[in-house]
UniProtKB/TrEMBL annotation:
The chain crosses the membrane at residues 7-27, 282-302. It catalyses: ATP + protein L-histidine = ADP + protein N-phospho-L-histidine. This is histidine kinase. Its EC number is 2.7.13.3. It is a multi-pass membrane protein. The lineage of its organism: Bacteria, Pseudomonadati, Pseudomonadota, Alphaproteobacteria, Hyphomicrobiales. GO terms for molecular function: ATP binding. It comes from Roseibium salinum.
């Protein structure tokens, strides 16, 4: 079978391989053609730049020798005749600006002396072309004008042309007509300076950006000379030049050719989109894909004949498939019936668990109720009606609690119905202590409460908190009852924005291998008559419903320790230490 597929796929593979070879060959031919054209265009553009430079190079020398232009230097102040002469020279020569500066770099005469932004009186001593000329050299510098904000090539000569320079003659050449000619030609070409900054470009959005990120010292030098008038000079490429031939700009890849201008370290760049260097690729791949599709159609036609024969066999087998489908439907219906039966069993189990929970939770207040009733009778026999009345109040409170507890156990399966309010958890602790007090008196275990004077505020359900605390305190009393000096301690405080209640005892403790199961329903470490194993399971569920946690660990040096953590109210700060302490001990 694999051989047959190999022979079927062999002709398309040969076609694709041949197309790949042809594509590589034509790519090289297209790239050579593009590079030859680029070399010709770069040579032409280079000559136009040098021609523009040579056209105006003589002007600073002529001005530096002409006393009509430099007369202001002898007087040390602007002279109208010098301004008019420079104005006439600029109009006749086509130069953008002509001006003369003294030895300090202040302009004393300029061709734009009548304009609002005249150069007269302005100092350009910071420009490199001035510094070169005042040192007796020929100055050349491309920059954005510091006054007019227009770019140009600045050419300068010292005046007089021999001897100690007294000033500097400058001509500014506007290079923008070159850019306009490049743009009209529809070609992508630009010029960069010795630092890699683009200053002439057929694409205006690339002007005054750099070929790559500029070092800090280069940026400082450009800012000191104000060469580009605060332009950002951000890199034009999405990434550094990958190679001599490719450049990526704004997500587009270009074939890149360059040539030195031979002036001020300038470089000309000529870009052609790589798509234009791959004109032969599309026809080759189109022809290849077309041939592959024709081949595929022929193969499919032949295969279709075979499939029609196979369909006859499939129709014969359809009857068997229908019968099998019928059996599957019957099995699915039987499975659904079993699932419904299991669901009814689960509901009955849930009812049983809830009934056991009701018995477990009501047994604790009923025990306390019996103790208060017995005490009331004794106090009535002694004639102590006041204490008897207090016990009756406690009995009334317990029966109200039993009614509320019944409602809470109903909510055990629907936790969202509990009433949430802002409470002081210290009150919940004291309420729980009253409920479990008879159990502690019965077992002879001491109960110690360690509460801070500051309120422990939380937004929670108070009755549920009391249920948890009653369960934990009662379990602690049962665990410590076997000790000679049984002690159960409850400590409360703030920790990381949570209210933490810690209940510990000095009983036998919980074996480490049983701690993970201690919160499972109906699991208990007590004897068979000591409990149903629901208290901790219900407490865990209540703590999670309130957004808190309940955990168990070993108490040092002996016993078990339960930690209840509940979210506190925002803005609460923990006290440095509990400033008040309430200790209650049952008679031993």
């Amino acid at each position: 079978m694999y051989k047959r597929w190999f022979y079927l796929a062999l002709p398309p593979l040969v076609l694709v391989a041949a197309a790949f070879v042809l594509v590589q060959l034509f790519l090289e031919l297209d790239e050579d053609s593009v590079d030859r054209t680029a070399a010709e265009r770069l040579t032409l553009y280079r000559q136009t730049i040098l021609g523009e430079y040579q056209k105006f190079r003589y002007l600073p020398y002529m001005i530096a020798r002409d006393p009509r232009a430099t007369s202001a230097l002898g007087l040390g102040q602007p002279v109208e005749s010098a301004n008019r002469f420079l104005q006439e020279m600029a109009e006749n020569s086509g130069a953008d600006l002509l001006y003369v500066m003294n030895a300090q770099g202040t302009t004393l005469a300029a061709s734009n002396w009548q304009d609002r932004l005249s150069l007269v009186g302005r100092n350009y001593g910071f420009r490199p072309y001035f510094k070169a000329a005042i040192n007796g050299e020929e100055g050349q510098f491309f920059a954005i004008g510091a006054t007019l904000g227009e770019p140009g090539l600045f050419l300068s000569r010292p005046t007089p042309v021999s001897g100690e320079p007294l000033g500097v003659a400058v001509v500014k050449v506007d290079m923008r007509p070159l850019e306009e000619a490049w743009a009209e030609g529809g070609e992508t070409v630009f010029a960069s300076d010795a630092n890699g900054v683009i200053f002439l470009s057929s694409r205006p959005e690339w002007r005054y950006r750099s070929m790559s990120a500029l070092p800090g010292d280069i940026r400082q030098m450009i800012e000191a000379t104000k060469q580009y008038a605060g332009q950002s000079l951000e890199p034009v490429g999405d990434q550094p030049v990958q190679s001599k031939d490719l450049l990526t700009i704004d997500g587009n890849v270009y074939r890149h050719n360059s040539a030195d201008v031979g002036l001020l370290g300038w470089t000309l760049h000529f870009l052609v989109p790589v798509e234009e260097t791959r004109k032969s690729v599309l026809p080759i791949w189109t022809a290849t894909i077309t041939l592959c599709l024709v081949y595929a159609v022929i193969v499919l036609v032949l295969r279709g004949r075979r499939l029609r024969k196979a369909s006859l066999l499939l129709r014969r087998e359809s009857a068997e498939l229908k019968e099998l489908n019928t059996r599957l439907v019957e099995e699915i219906q039987e499975r659904r019936r079993i699932e419904r039966a299991l669901a009814r069993s689960s509901r009955l189990a849930a009812v049983g668990e809830m009934s056991a929970a009701v018995v477990h939770e009501l047994s604790q207040p009923l025990s306390a109720l019996r103790m208060f009733v017995a005490g009331t009778r004794k106090f009535l026999d002694k004639g102590d009606t006041q204490t008897a009345a207090e016990n009756l109040d406690e009995i009334d409170s317990l029966q109200l609690r039993m009614a509320s507890l019944t409602q809470e156990l109903k909510r055990f399966a629907r936790p969202g119905e509990s009433r949430i309010e802002k409470i002081d958890l210290r009150e919940s602790v004291r309420t729980a202590e009253k409920i479990v007090r008879p159990r502690f008196e019965e077992t002879g275990v001491a109960l110690r409460l360690d509460l801070p004077e500051e309120p422990l505020e939380a937004e929670t359900a108070p009755l549920r908190i009391e249920q948890i605390l009653v369960n934990l305190l009662r379990n602690g009393a049962d665990a410590a009852a076997s000790e000679d000096e049984g002690i159960v301690s409850l400590r409360a405080g703030l920790q990381d924005g949570h209210v933490v209640l810690t209940i510990s005892d000095n009983g036998p403790g919980i074996p480490e291998d049983l701690r993970e199961r201690i919160f499972d329903p109906f699991f208990s470490t007590k004897s068979s008559s000591g409990g149903m194993g629901l208290g901790l399971a219900i407490s865990m569920r209540l703590a999670e419903d309130l957004g808190g946690t309940l955990s168990v660990s070993a108490n040092i040096p002996k016993g078990a320790q339960f930690e209840l953590s509940l979210p506190g109210v925002a803005g609460m700060t923990p006290a440095s230490s509990p400033s008040g302490k309430l200790e209650t001990e049952a008679a031993q």
